[in-house]
Every structure is written in C-alpha cells, then in structure tokens.
Amino acid sequence: MDILVNTRKSKASKLAHALHTAFLWLLVAGSAIAGSADMQKKAAAWPEEEVLYLHSDRDLYIAGEHLYFQAYHIGGIAKQTTGRLIYLVLQNQHNQLIKKLILRLNNNSFHGRIYLPDTLSTGSYQLVTYTNQMRRHDRVHQKHRKDIFIVNRFDEKLESLPPEPPDSLFGPYPHRQLHTEKWGSPTLKTDKDSYSRREKVTLKISPSPDQDSLLQLSVTVAHHLSFLEQVEHPQPKTSPLRLTETDNRQPIQTDFFHENENPILEGRVIDLNSEAGLENVRVILSTPDSLLNFNYAETGPGGNFRLSIHDFYLDKPLYLSLDTSALEAAARLLVFDKFDIRSNTQAASFRFMPSHKAFIQASQDYVRIAKAFEVDYTQQTVDAHKPIGHRPLLFSTPKHSVKPALFMPLNDFAEISRELLSPLRLRRQANRLQARMQIERTAYQFFDGPPAVFLDAIPVADINDIAHLASDDIERIEIQNFHWAYGKIRFDGILAVFSTTEAYRQLKLPDHTKLLDAYSLLRPAAYQPPDYSLSNDQLNRIPDLRQLLHWQANIQLTDTETVSTSFYTGDLKGLYLIKAEGVTIDGKRVTAVSSFIVE
Amino acid sequence: MKIQNIHFVPLICLLFLATEARLQQPIPNHQQDFQPHLSGEVYSPAVIFSGSPHYINAWSIGQVILKTGKAADSCMLRYNGYLDELFWLSPESYEQVMLDKGLIDGFRLFDAAGKQWIAFEQIEISDPLTGARKTVFAQLLLQDHLSLYAYRYVRETGATASVMQGGQLIQRRVIGPEYQFFLLDENGESQRIQMNRRNFLQLLPEKRQELRRELRRNRNRIRNEQQLVSAVKLLNVLYKNE
C-alpha cells in the first residue's frame, strides 16, 4: 500500500514537475516574445540609437558664399530633443577644422547657415555632426557626415579639379529622367517645365502613398552643376571620434552625457608631479564683466569636473582657475576639447563634368559681384531658446561701493585703500601688501584670512597684482565684508575692483589658470531670396546671379497634406534641380529630385 | 539529471533578458548634477527674543529658485519671519547661511506637520509705516489672475517675558507671528487685503453686490485663511467675467 502511495506520489510529483517546467518555459517565452514585440514596436516608432542627418543646399560652393544646412536628430532616449546641443564641424581634406559650431535643436532639428571664408583652398571638405552622447560609441556614422567641394574664389587655374572629366552624369537637359520614384519619396511638381527669368515658380510637394509618418524635409533648388556625384568614399563607415585632452592629446575617460540647453565644459585637474587626478579640487569659472559673476565645480573621482555654461557665459572669454585655498599639491588644469575629434577620414572624391570648369569660373565672378553689391539673402530666424537675463553673481548688492573718480586722485591702490576703503586694511610687510577685511557684523574685528580679490570679475591670486592701480584706472570698488558662503567656498570678505581700462588683461595669470575661447551657439537662419512680386526699384537694379534659387528647411509633410511653396527664378539660365531630402520620425531617409529649365 | 538541468535554461534566459533590459536603460542625465550654488552670509542670529522668529521652527527640506532660472533642490531651509530672510543649513559645515535675497526668486518648503509643500515668492509691497516699497518673501496661497499671498512676518508684541539664562533671570522681548495678505494682479501690482468681508467687497466695487451674493451663497464670512482663499477664487471668477 505504501509502495502504491509512493508510486502515486512520485507520478504526481513528476507531473507537477513537468507542469512547473512547462509553466516556466511559457513564462520565459511569453515575456521574451512580448519584450521583443515591444522592442520592435518601439524601434519602429523611434530608433533606440541616436542618429543625426545633415542636409545642405548644394554640394559645390565658392569660398565666400554661405552654406545653408539643416540637421535632424532622430532616436535616443528623449523623444523631445528641443534644447539638445549638437556639434558641427567643417573640416578640410587634411582633417583640419575650419569651423567649429554648437547648435541648439528646436523640435529635433536645426537650420542655419555657415559662412565659408574667402581663404579656403580648393578641395573636398566635410561637415561632421555629432552629439556629446554619440562620442560614447567612439565613432561617427556615415550619415552624420556630408561631403562638399569648395573652390577658392581666386583660384583661376582650378588645378585641384580632376584633370580628365568622366562621362556626364546628367547630360544636356535630361530633366525628365530625374523624377525619382523611390519608396516613400514625395512627389515634386512645378507648375511649368520651363520658366523665364525672374518668373514665379510654384512647387507642390505631395506625400508618397507609402509615407506612413510625419516627414521632415528640406528643399533646395539650385543650378544642376551645383550638385556633384560622389564617385568614391574610401573611408570606413565609422571613424574615431575620441575626446582628447587639449594639452597632452591623450584619450580621456569621461561619461558621455546628454547636453541640454547649455554646453558643458569638461576637464580634469591632475597632480603636477604624479599626473594623478586630484579629487575635491574647486575649479572656478568667471568672465570679465562689470558685475562679479562666479561659478565653480568640484572635481570628482579621477579629477574630472564639469561646468554648465550658463547663457550669460556664452560668447564671452572664459577664465578657469583653481581655488588654491583648498589645494594641497601643485596642480594642472586640463580642459577637454569636444571639437578635437581627431578624425582621420579621407575626403570624398567627386565626379566633375566638362562644363564644370566654366560653371565654377562663372560662379567665382557671381560671388565677386554679389559681394560688390553686398547681397545677402539670409534672414535670421527666432531662436526658440529664451536666454535668462540674470547673471550668476557672487552677491547681489555690495555692502560698500566706492567710485574713486568722485574723490581726489590717488596714486596707487594702497593709497585708495587707506583713504577710501575703511573696511579694508592693507599692511606692507617685506615690501609686499597684506590685506585683511574688517568684519561688518562686529565692526572691530578683522577676518583671520585675506579677502578674495577680483579684478573685473577675474580672481586675483595676490593683491599686489593690483597694487599699481590708481584712481583713474578704477571705475568702482565693491566690498562685501561678511563671512561669505558660495556653495562650499567660504570667503573672509570680498574685494571686487572694476577698472576703466580693462586692467584684467595685464594680470599675470597663475600657471593653473586657463583662458578659453568663447562658447558660441549658432543662431538659426533661413534663406530669403528676392520677391519680385513687390515693386521694388532697388531690387530690380541689382543683378540676380543666384545659383541657389530656393532653400527651405523645416518642411513638415504629413501623409495626407500637400505643401506648396513658391520662389522666383534669377537672371541665370540653365537647368535647375529641385532636391528634397528628409527623414521620417522613425528615421527613414527620403530623397526626391525633379528639375525645370530657366530660359 | 537532464530534467534537473532543464531548470537552468529558463533561468539563463531570464538573466539574459534582465541584462538586455539593463543595457537598454536610459543613460543617466548628468544635467541634473549641475546644482546651482547658494550664496549668502554665514550668520547665526543671536537669540535675544522670547518666541520663535521662524515660520516653521525646524529645518525643512526645500528648494531655492534662483534668479538665474536654476533651482537648488534638497536644501535644508528655514524662513526667518523677523528678519524676512531665508536661511540655509550648509550640509558640510552645518553653518547657517543667510541667503542673498537679491539672488533669489522664491523658495519651497516641505511642511512636515501639514505634510504639504508651501511656496514663497518675492513680492513688492508698500511698507505700512513708511509707505516705501520693499520686497518681501510671501507665501503663495492661490495663483490666478489675482494671486493671493500671505506675508508671514514676526514682530515684537511689546510684551516681555522672564527667562532663566545661565542661572540668572533675564527679561526678553516677546515676538509673535503676524500675517498680512496681499492680492497681486498680473502686472505684479500688490494690494493689501484685510481678513473681513467689508474690506473684501471693496476690491471689486463694480461687482460688489454680485460678490456679496456669491459670498453669502457660499456662507463665506472671510474669518480664516481657508475662507479667504475661497473668497479670492470667487473674486477671480468675477474678475475674469468683467
């Protein structure tokens, strides 16, 4: 009986075991299928990987012209990338950086223009775009690049162009063959096939029946020789995009985080002898100004630090210094250059047609004429970002403020201090000035340590550096004789001197102080060609030698609506291409081409 | 043995899925790390009164909104109604820092007793004694076209109290809370209001009767703060319909 019971128990146990195993399998399979379906759905809706697309108005430019471009940002963690910062560099065929720009996205895109300096030599160039987070992957994908060819305005020989022009890409006026019918491409239709000079062109952009999501487009209309066929692109699909330290060009270890609204200044503080990263060192940021601005960051493990560049600090030279009061060893400050991409990609080769040489020579003349007439078709558009007017100040109102110009002229700062600055005590010891500040709260005691001294908002390590300043050199002196706190920093009083003569420029900066170039954000800009519907005599007198007839970025094309746009032809005859490039919100790239003739 | 090993397969699969999920987790947004620094005087006011000068006596967790548009979160704060100053307890040194009012737009405190967040903003009011304009921290009670603020100040009552200090009996001046209420319009113009119906009805003279009727219907006699807030809500409805 017991055996029978045991056998039954054993069978029941095996059955339960099998059911349990099956249940586990079902659970795992179910969650895996659900997970994968969810992931697929997610991927279709919004790519997981951050991708940037870059479109420009043409492929061929003359130095001295403007290049119009649109950058799209798709994918990544945050769907709404308004305020996200992206980097754009223009580099020549030797991988030297010509332009370094920071762009702030609005609704996942940015449209603007770049001036191509007159001094650029003839050759292939690359526009490379990336976000800070993309550098985590240590590469820039092919689609983050755009190859262009720039011809120097004074290059008459054009020796950099290929000597043997191969077959024509388009042939003479083959515009009917140019209509593309690719998957998802919108239809481009002009009201006529040929136009006379300065005639209105109406262009309709209709969505493709395949289009299933919102398409963001840029449309360019330019002379057909402004577009080049790329014959070869020898670089690998990915190329190194390493962040390097400015000074020793060693790859650094850092987090590659999102940058929103404001750029992040990154760097490292190392021990001068051992080169080990120093932790808990304060790095002070300031810029010359008429008010005492101040900000700091503390180094973390490995000696790395980050500072958010507030709107106020944009477009201004930045002074980075170390808080020596909390520094135990001789230190060195390194700043990471996010533009130092060390890209070693080879520039693209383009195929030129026999007619290109004459076209380029004529274009050089057109640019010269446009410069003579000071023609600029750019319109600055409104930046969605509203800068915050208030500065990051160390204090709002000083306890004491003195204008030496209101008193008898005094010869040096020691005299000024003695006669005009009652809370400041300067003593000369071994021919050097020592400063102490009277405590406002007690009015009879002095702080143990010297006050923090600033000249035009730049920290001054030693008060003797400003000892030579006379009344005429000083616009205002501010004194805050309180035990002042700013985050973790404590000041035994603050002395801020504002000069009339930008005296900060003569300051001898300590070795650990760095003067950085201004961080500037490119402002969005649009192309605004002449409108001949308006009776404007001045407009009629100016020759219209535009090779770029129309450039419109930020076109939103839904799957049902048709977008209409219009522009005028110029004075130049020829075949003009209409090229629409775009990307759907799920990251599908779309291109459409059409053409018309100006006779 | 084979049947036993089969248990590991789902486990490995689960581990794989967990790893996948971990890999797809968002990258931490370090933008949050850029906490602004608070600026002010290291100062501990001497205890010379009988009574508390603070709106909430204990240190409260809070947020300081700076004029730069940035906010410093998770700070230990205390509002001193006698000085009309905000104090921050520095987490490293435990020093009291009287924050520079000129750099602050407002602050929020977590009232542990009421289990709610209370927001203070800087508003400009007329000094009742001198008539001069001054900027004070006032608690936002209602935000609308006409916003209601309470200025929670502490003043000397005129009385004195005997307290033992160091074995000696000393006299101390007594301080106590006193609140003033202000209506702020969309242009930032402030108007002091009293907590009584007669004064309140004068705020919208053209719709005085309508306002009176509404207050009566809601049985609101404006006797306490809650009733004042309800009355200002009614006032806003009439103000919008004006």
Concise description?
With 599 residues, chain A is mainly beta. Chain A has 4 helices and 37 strands. The N and C termini of chain A lie far apart (108 Å).
Largest sheet features of chain A: 5 strands, mixed
**End-to-end distance of chain A, in Å?**
108 Å
**Physical arrangement of strands within the biggest beta sheet of chain A:** 2-9-7-4-5
Task: Give the end-to-end Cα distance of chain B, rounded to a whole number of Å.
Answer: 85 Å
Poorly predicted residue ranges of chain A: 1-10, 21-44, 167-181, 240-251
Number of contiguous helices of chain B: 5
* Largest interface, Cβ cutoff 8 Å: A-B, 48 and 39 residues
Walk me through the structure:
The complex is a heterodimer of chains A (599) and B (242). Chain A has 599 residues and is mainly β. Chain A is built from four helices and 37 strands. The longest helix of chain A has 44 residues, at 2-45. With 242 residues, chain B is α+β, with helices and mostly antiparallel strands. In chain B, 21% of the residues lie in helices and 42% in strands. In chain B, strands 1, 2, 3, 4, 5, 6, 7, 8, 9, 10, 11 and 12 form a twelve-stranded mixed sheet that branches. In chain B, helix 4 (208-217) packs across helix 5. The radius of gyration of chain B is 26 Å and the shape is globular. Mean pLDDT of chain B is 85; it is low at 15-32. Classes of the chains: A mainly beta (599), B alpha+beta (242). At the A-B interface, helix 1, strand 20 and strand 30 of A face helix 2 and strand 1 of B. Strand 30 (474-486) of chain A pairs antiparallel with strand 1 (39-42) of chain B, so a sheet runs across the interface.
